[in-house]
Amino acid sequence: MSKFGGALKKLQAVQTQSTEAEESTPILPDTGKPENTKTSKSTSTKTRTPEILETGQPERQGPEREKYSTYLDTELVTALKLYAVRHRMKHHHVVEAALRAYLQGKE
């Protein structure tokens, strides 16, 4: 897995789709521009539901989450990311599981 995850594959898919759309759109001979430039609509990525890149399926909605950041030792961050990649997890899920286990052990 590359350090960019599935972003490169998604970009290539979008480029392929836009190339196919351009080929199917008639070009006006005088201007060299596509005929339907004003009527073509593009889907905004902000309005779409989050998708899992490999399957294209909507991401499951779990418990409500709040963004939180902190500082960690560089070696710990590297180990965290390696663990996440090896277990095909997102790194914030690894941190969440570890924190839950730690706090349950303290009670």
Descriptive report:
The chain has about 110 residues and is an all-alpha fold. It has a domain at about 70-105. It has 3 helices and no strands. Helix 2 (about 75-85) crosses helix 3 (about 90-105). The model has no long low-confidence stretch (mean pLDDT about 75).
Strand content: under 5%
Structural class: mainly alpha
Low-confidence stretches: none
- Arithmetic mean pLDDT: 74
Order of helices and strands: HHH
Task: Give the number of DSSP strands.
Answer: 0
Q: Which bin fits the share of residues in helices?
A: 40-55%
Radius of gyration: 21 Å
Main beta sheet: none
Count of alpha/pi helices: 3
**How far is the N terminus from the C terminus?**
38 Å
Oligomer classification: single chain
Question: What characteristic shape results from the CA principal axes?
Answer: elongated
